[in-house]
Write a structure and sequence with these properties.
about 100 residues; mainly alpha; Arc Repressor Mutant, subunit A; 3-stranded antiparallel beta sheet; 3 strands; about 55% helix
Length: about 100
């Protein structure tokens, strides 16, 4: 995915650690300093600094966290990921089965 295309097209499910980190970040605050986000992930999930940084980078690359400037990241709404995941699943399923899906 390109820069923060957010949840336009979800290509894969989040891994367990990524999902838990995303949940931990989104449940408390909406905007974080990158250092605070790393500390939160490290302390809540008991991970090393390198693993926490890789997870944070993946969340930014997937567009679930967006950079507001060089130092801050903003959390997208937690349920928007699941809505986009459902939309992507329906589109792939309709393409595979050849049926047209209508949005309700």
């Amino acid at each position: 995915m390109r820069n923060n295309q957010a949840t336009d097209k979800i290509s894969r499910l989040l891994k367990k650690r990524e999902l838990l980190a995303y949940y931990v970040l989104c449940k408390e605050e909406i905007e974080y300093n990158i250092g605070e986000a790393l500390d939160t992930i490290i302390n809540e999930l008991i991970l090393s600094k390198k693993v926490a940084w890789n997870i944070l980078r993946r969340l930014i690359r997937l567009g679930l966290l967006t950079r507001t400037d060089n130092v801050h990241v903003k959390c997208k709404e937690f349920y928007s990921y699941f809505d986009a995941l459902l939309q992507s699943y329906r589109e792939r399923r309709a393409r595979r089965t050849g049926t047209m899906w209508r949005k309700r």
